[in-house]
Amino acid sequence: MAARAGVQLQDMEMWQFHPTGIAGAGVLVTEGCRGEGGYLLNKDGERFMERYAPNAKDLASRDVVARSMMTEIREGRGLDGPLGPHCLLKLDHLGKETLEARLPGVCELSRTFAHIDPADGPIPVLPTCHYMMGGLPTKVSGQVIRMNDDGTEQDVLGLFAVGEIACVSVHGANRLGGNSLLDLVVFGRAAGQHLGKALDATPDPKAASDVEISASLARLNRWESNKDGEEPAVIRKDLQLCMQLNFSVFRSGDAMAEGLEQLQAIQKRLENAKLSDNSTEFNTQRIECLELDNLMATALATAYAANFRTESRGAHSREDYLDRDDDNWLCHSLYNPVTQGMSKRDVNMTPKLREAFPPVKRTY
Asked: I need a labelling partner for 104 at 20 to 30 A (CA). Which of 4, 68, 119, 198 fits?
C-alpha cells in the first residue's frame, strides 16, 4: 500500500533467512532447538558448523548459519530427494521426555509437516525467508518520514508504522531472535502515545474524489477482461523461483541483473493474468492476483536495493563484494517506488544516552 502511494522504502535488501525451515514446507522450527543442544548435520553426518563458527558453532547468528548451510548444499554435502536439497537438524539425542517438555511445539510441527518424530530421527531443514529488516522509514514515534531531494527529512502526515513493516531501524542489517516482539511492544506503545497528538495537529482528511474511487475500483477489476493470460498460481510460482535463485542467501551482480529482467517479464505476465472465476463475491483468484501484485512490488524493491548495495553486510551477502564497506555503505538505502531509483540515507550517530561505538568485524 505504501509503495503504491509513492512512499519511500528503506533497506529493502535486508531480508533475514531463518536457518531451520522444514524442507518442503517452509514452516520454521525455533533456534531454541539448538539452544537446547540440537545441532546441524550434512549428508556425511558431520557437525559442520564447527568449521564455520568454531566458538559459537550452531548458536552463531542466523545469517552465518544460513550461509553455512547453503555452502554445504552448494558444495555437494547437502542431502537430496523429494524435498529438494537440505541439511538435517538432529534432536533425538536429547531424548523424548526432554523434547516433549522443552520443545513440544517443535515436536508437533515436525510430525505434522516433516512426518518425522524428532525423538526418532533428524528433521530435514533448509534456510527459509523469515523477516524483513527493511520497510517504511520511521522515527521512534512510529511517524513515517521521507527524504527530500535536498537531503532534508519530512514527516508523511497521518502515516505511522510499527513492527515488521517499519524500519526504525533498531535491527540494523540482521535482527536477533526474539527482538521482533520487543520491537512491537516498545514502538507500538510509542506510536500510541504520539498518535493522539499527531491527529490533533493534522487537518481533517479529505473525502476521496470520484477519480480516486474509480482508480481503486479499476485495480480490483483490471483482470476481468483478460481471456488468454495465465493462472495467477503459475505466475506466483515463477516469482518465488526467481527470488529464490537470484536474491536469497547468496547474491551477485550478474544473478541479480538476470533476476531483475525476469521480474520485469513476470510483471507483464501479471498484467495479463486470467481469472477463471469472475464472480464478485469470495473470489479467491482475484485475491490471489491482488496479493501477487503486492509481492511483485516488494520483489522489485528488494531487487533494486540489493543490486544498489555493493558490499556484504548482515543478511545481505554478495559474492562479488565479500567485505563490509563502512567507508561507503554505513548508511541506509532508500528505494523510490515511483521512479524505481535508489539513494542513500545517513545513519544518525549523534550520541544520546552514551557515546557511539564503531562497528567491528563479527567473529564466532
From this structure: 68
Query: Is residue 71 domain-shared with residue 87, that is, in the same domain?
Result: yes
User: For residue 4, is it within any domain?
Assistant: no
| Annotation marks residue 74 as catalytic | no
- Per DSSP, the three-state class of 225 is coil
Name the residue among 161, 165, 163, 158 with its Cα closest to residue 139: 161
26 and 116 housed in the same domain? yes
Asked if residue 172 belongs to a domain, the reply is yes
DSSP conformation class of 142: S
The reply to whether 251 and 320 lie within a common domain is yes
CATH number of the domain residue 238 falls in: 1.20.58.100
* 20: three-class secondary structure by DSSP: strand
**Given 4, 47, 62, 102, the catalytic residue:** 62
**How far, in Å, CA of 90 to CA of 120, rounded?**
10
CA-CA distance, 179 to 62, in Å (whole number)? 13
316: helix, strand or coil: strand
Q: List CB contacts of 213: < 8 A, sequence separation 6 or more.
A: none
Question: Among 184, 182, 180, which residue's Cα sits nearest to residue 18?
Answer: 180
What single-letter DSSP state applies at residue 58?
Answer: G
120/103 Cα distance (integer angstroms): 14
Q: What's the pLDDT tens digit per position in 2-24?
A: 999 999 999 999 999 999 999 99
Q: Are 318 and 251 in contact (CB under 8 A)?
A: yes
